[in-house]
Amino acid sequence: MQPAVCRTTLQLPSQEYLRVEERTRTHRPGLHRYVAEKDGRIVGSITIHQGNTARTRHTAGLGMAVHPDFWGQGIGSQLMETILNLADNWLNLLRVELEVNIDNPAAIRLYKKFGFEVEGTKRMHTYGDGRWADSYFMARIR
Fold it and tell me: Counting beta carbons within 10 angstroms of the beta carbon of residue 70, is it exposed (0 to 12), middle (13 to 18) or buried (19 or more)?
């Protein structure tokens, strides 16, 4: 994971690309992942993990990351369109939820563009670069 990406997500910095790639290839029930590829290189990924009980199967948690070299090129929007099409039209999910660092305004704008709303704040949720950061709980309900 690139350090710039780690500052805006819940991941730790790591130069172990193979570990991240292996995680991308792992399949678990209820886990759905797409990757964005450019010139044979993975430049972004998005995942939803569907609830696994009878009472939570209508929900899923969402996580995504785009390599910093490709920020601002519409890759995040393409990934969101693809995963939300799956969520709405194939999995019949009613609620998709996520957590995002408050100091990641680009991601917050992207999520709001796709109908996500802030539901709450998790104070001092993450620690990195020598400081604490708050996170928003966001969700999209159709």
Answer: middle
Q: What are the phi and psi torsion angles at 80 (to 5°)?
A: -65, -45
Dist CA 3 CA 12 (whole Å): 8
Name residue, tokens 């708050």.
134
Query: Could you report the average pLDDT of every consecutive run of 10 residues in the chain (142 residues)?
Result: 56 54 68 94 95 95 95 96 98 98 96 98 92 96 96
Which domains does the chain carry?
3-141 (3.40.630.30)
**Torsion sign across C-alpha atoms 76, 89, 61, 32:** negative
pTM: 0.81
